[in-house]
Amino acid sequence: MARDDIPDDLRPHWISSLSQAEPAALEAHWAGLHPKPAFRWLRPAESGLVMLRGRAGGNGQAFNLGEMTATRAVAILEGNPTLTGYGYVAGRSKRHAELAALFDALLQDPSRRRDLWHDLILPVEAIRTAARRKRAAAVGATRVDFTTMVRGDV
Amino acid sequence: MFEHAVVTEPGLADPVQQSQEIFRTVLAALSEPGRVFQLADMAPADALEVGPAALGILLALTDGDTPVWLGDKAEALANYLRFHTGSPIVSDPGAAQFALVRGGDWRLDLFDPGNEDFPDQSATLIVEVDALTEGGLITLSGPGIPGHRHVTVQGLPADFSGQWSAKHAQFPCGVDVIVTCGSSLMGLPRTTSFAHSGR
C-alpha cells in the first residue's frame, strides 16, 4: 500500500458517505476527473425494493416495517488489479448509484485514494454534517422543556 | 487488498427484454420437442466455460428461490450466478431445481423427479452437448410432435435412451430437459419418448 494513511478498512465508511452525498457533488467531481478511468458496468443501475426490518422498542421481535426503494449499480474498472465498485443508494437515482459505484472502485485504487479522500469524501461529509447541524438547530430552537415533568426513565 | 473481484462478466445486457425472450424461446422449445431454436443476441462468455444458450437460460430462469446444481469444476460459473441471480448453488443434485449437466458421466436419476402430488416440483436439466441438429437417427414422439421428429444429439450418456425410458414409466413424475449446444437449444420434456433408430 502506497498510502497507508487511509486504510482499506475505511471502505464501509466511504461507501456510506458516497451513498448519502449530494449527487450533484459527485457529478461535479466526476466531471473534473481527467483522464476518466476505463470502466464497464458489471451490473447496470437498477431500482428495486428493499424490505426494512424493525423491532418495537429496539428489542422486540423483528417484524417487516415496510419496503423502501433502493437503487444499485456495480462498476468494473479495467486495470491491474481489476477493481469492482458497488453503489447502493436510497431512492431511484440511477446516476447517483452509478457515481457511487465508480467512486467506490476508484477509492480502492491506492494511487487515487488519498486525493479522492481529501477532495471528495471529506468535503461531502462536511456538507452533510453542516446540513444536519442546521436542521438540528432549527428543530432545537422550537424545543419545549416541560420542567415539571420527568423526561425519560429516572 | 480487496479480494472480491471474482466476477468480471456482465449479465444480460437488457435484462427485462432478454429474459422475456429467453423465457418465450424455452416455452416454445418445450412445446415443440425436437425443433432446434436459437437464442440470438447472447454474448458468449468464454471465461465461464459455458455456451450462450445454457448461460442465458440460467440467467433468465433462476433466482434466489431456485437451488442450482452445476457439478464440479464450475467455480467461476457458481460465483457468476450467485452474483447475478442470487441462486443458491447446491452440491447435492437431488436438491436442485435447475441443473447444468455436461459430458457423458451423469445419470437422470440423480435429479429430483417431483412426487405424485406435485410432479411440477421436479428438477429441470440443462444438458450441454457436443452437437445438436434437426434430422438424424434419434426419433422423438409425443405431445407437441406431429408424428415423429428426428434429431442428432451427440454427447449424451451412452445409455441415455434406456434411462429416459425408465423415467418415462414414472410419469407424471420425471425431469424436463433442455438440450443446448452453443446458442442452440431443444426441449425434451418428460412427455417425449426418445429412441435411437436405424442402429
Structure explained in plain terms:
The complex is a heterodimer of chains A (154) and B (199). With 154 residues, chain A is α+β, with helices and mostly antiparallel strands. Chain A has a domain at 8-45 and 71-136. Helix content of chain A is 42%, strand content 27%. In chain A, strand 2 (62-77) and strand 3 form a beta hairpin. The longest helix of chain A has 32 residues, at 110-141. Chain A is globular, with a radius of gyration of 20 Å. Chain B is an alpha/beta fold. Chain B has a single domain (15-196), classed as Rossmann fold (3-Layer(aba) Sandwich). Helices cover 23% and strands 23% of the residues of chain B. In chain B, the strands form two sheets. In chain B, strands 1-8-7-4-3-2 form a six-stranded mixed β-sheet. In chain B, strands 6-5-9 form a three-stranded antiparallel β-sheet. The mean pLDDT of chain B is 91. Chains A and B meet through strand 1 of A and loops of B.
Q: Quick check: average pLDDT of chain B?
A: 91
| CATH class assignment of chain B | Alpha Beta
**What are the segments of chain A in which pLDDT stays under 50 over at least 5 consecutive residues?**
none
Helical residue percent of chain B? 10-25%
> Low-confidence parts of chain B, pLDDT < 50 over ≥5 residues?
none
Largest sheet of chain A: 3 strands, antiparallel
Q: What is the radius of gyration of chain A computed over CA atoms, rounded to a whole number of angstroms?
A: 20 Å
Count of DSSP-assigned helices of chain B: 4
How many domain regions of chain B? 1
Which structural traits does this protein have?
heterodimer, A: 154 residues, alpha+beta, 3 strands, 42% helix, B: 199 residues, alpha/beta, Rossmann fold, six-stranded mixed sheet, three-stranded antiparallel sheet
Present the secondary structure layout.
The complex is a heterodimer of chains A (154) and B (199).
Chain A lengths: L10 H10 L2 H9 L7 E17 L6 E16 L5 E8 L3 H14 L2 H32 L13
Antiparallel strand pairs in A: 1-2, 2-3
Helix pairs in contact in A: 1-3, 1-4, 2-3
Chain B lengths: L14 H17 L5 E2 L13 H10 L6 E2 L5 H10 L13 E5 L21 E5 L2 E11 L7 E6 L5 H9 L7 E6 L2 E5 L4 E4 L3
Parallel strand pairs in B: 2-3, 3-4, 4-7
Antiparallel strand pairs in B: 1-8, 5-6, 5-9, 7-8
